[in-house]
Amino acid sequence: MSKLGRYSADRKKIEALTAAQSKTVELADCGTVFTCAGGNGVSAITLPAISTAGEGWWCKFILIADNGTGAVTVSPASGDEDKICVASYGGLGDSTNAANVQSDSAADTVFFVASKALAGDSMEFICDGSVWICQAFSADGDKGIDISS
Questions:
Q1: 3-class DSSP state of 14
Q2: Domains and CATH numbers, the chain
């Protein structure tokens, strides 16, 4: 029996965001997993325009350290406000219900909450050509990831 494909067929592109800065995600960053240092790491991330990204474009953000005193926000490009369809699982809402789920069909921003988001919390953004679809996961039972509309 022969092997199909290459051993590296599912390797991910990784980019570390470490400095306290703003990051504008580029079209060429499709398929990239961005690691975000907590604390004094990157603070504001802007996605590419939906019309430029197009159907199938995606990226993911993962905290690699507990988030310190500053939130890490992910927002759409100017003109794409109210176009994030997000479902957040795990630590959202009431701290007594760690299985809480939160959703919004027209969010403006999704963010790792300062002093609550934990290492391993993640957000994945997929463009369907007309909106950003976001799936967010948090281990914190008291809103480690939140949204604003």
A1: strand
A2: 13-148 (2.60.120)
